[in-house]
Every structure is written in C-alpha cells, then in structure tokens.
Amino acid sequence: MIVVTAPTSRIGRALLPLLLDKHAAVRAIARDPSKLSDDIRSRVEVIEGSHGDAVTLDRALLGATHLFWLCPANPQATSVEEAYVGFTKPAAKAIGDHGIARVVSITALGRGTVLESEAGLVTGSLAMDDLLAATGAHLRALAMPSFMDNLLWQMPVLREKGLFFTPLPRDLALPACSVSDIASKAARFLLDDTWAGQEEIPVLGPENISADRMAEIMGEVLDRKIVCSPLSFETYEAMFVKQGYSAAMAAGMADMMRAKANSLDLGVARTHDTASPTSFRQWCETVLQPVFGS
Known about the structure:
The protein has helices at 10-20, 38-41, 54-61, 80-98, 121-133, 155-161, 179-190, 211-222, 233-242, 247-261, 280-292; strands at residues 2-4, 26-30, 45-48, 66-69, 102-108, 138-144, 146-147, 163-166, 174-177, 198-202, 208-209, 227-230. The protein is α/β, with parallel strands linked by helices. It has a domain at 2-145 and 177-203: Rossmann fold, CATH 3.40.50. The strands form 3 sheets. A 7-stranded parallel β-sheet has the order 3-2-1-4-5-6-10, sandwiched between helices. Strands 7-9-11 form a 3-stranded mixed β-sheet. It has a two-stranded parallel sheet with strand order 8-12.
C-alpha cells in the first residue's frame, strides 16, 4: 500500500495517475476529498483529514509500505521551523510506529552549501529531511530547484501585461524542473520495493536557464512579448505579507530567494542521474500555452 499526502497539490495530481496506471494500491490523505476528480476518488482509498494530524496518520499508515511526503508549509505558520519540522513530527512518529519501510519526500536543493542554514524555507525543508531520516526508514529525498510550474501563479499579470516578476538576477542561469518530472521520479521510487538506505536525489531539469531567457522562450511560444520585471527582496517579502503570509513565512520566502540569488541551487552538478527531461520550452508548449489560452 502506497500512501500519498497532498494529493490535490500539483505534484500529487500528477503523481496519482502514474501510480494507478501501474495498478498500485493507493491511499490518499486529503483535507477535502471533493477536490479529487471522480475518476481518482473511485480508484483510491481516501482518508479525510490533515497529514499533520496524528490520528489521521495512524489511520492512513495502517498496513502501508511506502509513504509519499509533501509538506504544505502553512503560510501562516509562526516560524519556518514550525511549518516544516513541527508539521512533520507526527508523521515521523507514525512512520516508526507503523514500520513504514520506504519514504519518498519532496525537499529542496542546498544541503552541503554554505547557505543551507540561512536559506529560509530551504533551511526548514532540510531540517524536515533530517527528522524523516532519523526514523530509520529507507528514504529518497527528491531535492528540487525552482519549479517551472510556479510561473502559473503569475498567470493574470502574464495575460494582462505580458510580465512576470522575480527578485533573482535576470541573467542568472539556474536549474528549473517541471512538476511532471518530479512526479515521474517519485513514482519510480514508490513503485519499487528494492531500494534501500537514505539518499538525496536532485531533480535539475535538462538545463540551467535565466529569467530573461525564460521570457524569450515564453514570448516565442505564446507569440507575444513577455518581459521579466525585477523586484527587490524587500518588495518580494512585502508582497507575501500582503497575501496573508505571517511575517516569519514571508521572511522565509525572501531568505530562500536571496540564497538562490547567491547560487544556492548550483551546488550540485547535472549528470545523467540528476537531470530530468522536460525543457522549459517543452513545459511552455505543453503546460503554459494551454492555460494561457484558456
């Protein structure tokens, strides 16, 4: 039995069909099961509740062998540590109590760099991994750069003004990965009961790409001029406060981007094992363009 957390997230929605197409037995923990499609609900066992809740986890992990762990990082959390480590503590206990053999988690790049202790949300995510590793379960922590799909959050301004915003240097080329590639990598480990030990697995995409180059490619695919507009880190942080984030979580977002601006995501080399296949242009053609035109 594979237990999937955050099944209505972008990664969760991409992951579930990959598991079900292989006829895996899947149990999903969902706060609101109505957000799952009818097809998915008919094919999985759904446990209603939060995967930060000990009682819900005890129900969900009964008889399970594999756990997919994605921490939602509550934007109103009082601290980054509470958002990641505090939320994950019940799961760490449940993993031990139920003898879960294998855990696949979503985490961030940055471990082993000089910036890992001051990288905001990344620092919290790495501390979460340490908590999961301490359970003794076999672990694959899928370490991510920025997601291409995060650009979808800026769809209104992309459509209306041909703009997207970033506090990162516009000419800084960094790795970026697609949600579909993350889901594929996660499915590979969740469907396999032969791997062992604890390891971090970077998912770097096929190339490093700058914000200015992203703007060029988006313009070519969408057939309109797209411009990357810079933001100061202070403006970026204030934007999240305005959206309802706690001061601590907004600062965590800004600290993460400051670390990325100082090459946090360049600490791992791209190899055959760390690359993932979807290029930014492919993502624009298959994901961005249909949404943009809808």
